[in-house]
Amino acid sequence: MNDTLIHNYLLSHIPERKPFFMELEAYAAEHEVPIMEVDSMHFMLQIMQIQQPKRILEIGTAIGYSALRMADALPDVHIVTMERDEVRYDRAWHNVHTFGAEDRIEVLLMDALEDSSIVLEKENFDAIFIDAAKAQYAKFFNVYIDKLAPGGVIYSDNVLFKGLALHDSPRAQQKQRVSRKMREFNDWLLQNPDFITTTVPLGDGLAISRRKEGAK
């Protein structure tokens, strides 16, 4: 069965995004800003609409695309999102303001690891979305795990890393450190006794990790 044919078929059946979101997608493509792919975003939003989180922490704002998609799909949600690149932070703030979501999306200019105390002082979150430096996923997870509410869900994007996280292929050798880190993260995540994790092969790979009842 042709995987490309199936993928294109599924993409063609995803509802059309709002014009503003399609503008952000075009901007990201033109300026080579990594944002979540359309199919994995659509799937994640479906899961979130079932979960109905009231507070979401996003690690890696980029231009605000994911935060705005989540805010649009979840009218009652409050999102705290962090970005360390000042140019992307400015663009994200502009996009959030343009969309009129500044009362529900708090954009922070900070390093998720070096400045973590800023967020650790805030209320807990029902969901955490990790979409930042791939080699640091395990650190992000461990630093912010205590801010996840009981029964909360952690969503991790790009866990397949264009297929490079699967094995030591010649392509993976070119990005050896990151591909190895992602492979180690995936193995660790799937074996974590406090979470039930499912990895979905949509977009660049999306891991959905639900905290078990009674887990620390």
Automatic annotation (TrEMBL):
Q: Which UniProt keywords apply?
A: Magnesium, Metal-binding, Methyltransferase, S-adenosyl-L-methionine, Transferase, tRNA processing
Q: Which GO terms describe its biological process?
A: tRNA methylation
Catalytic activity reads: 5-hydroxyuridine(34) in tRNA + S-adenosyl-L-methionine = 5-methoxyuridine(34) in tRNA + S-adenosyl-L-homocysteine + H(+)
Group of enzyme by EC: transferase
InterPro entries recorded: Cation-dep_OMT (IPR050362), SAM-dependent_MTases_sf (IPR029063), SAM_O-MeTrfase (IPR002935), TrmR_methyltr (IPR043675)
Drop me one GO molecular function for this one.
S-adenosylmethionine-dependent methyltransferase activity
PROSITE patterns named among the record's database cross-references = SAM_OMT_I
UniProt-listed Enzyme Commission number(s): 2.1.1.-
Q: How does it assemble?
A: Homodimer.
Q: Into which family does the record put it?
A: Belongs to the class I-like SAM-binding methyltransferase superfamily. Cation-dependent O-methyltransferase family.
**This chain belongs to which protein, by name?**
tRNA 5-hydroxyuridine methyltransferase
What lineage does UniProt assign to this protein's organism? Bacteria, Bacillati, Bacillota, Bacilli, Bacillales
Please state the gene responsible for encoding this protein: trmR
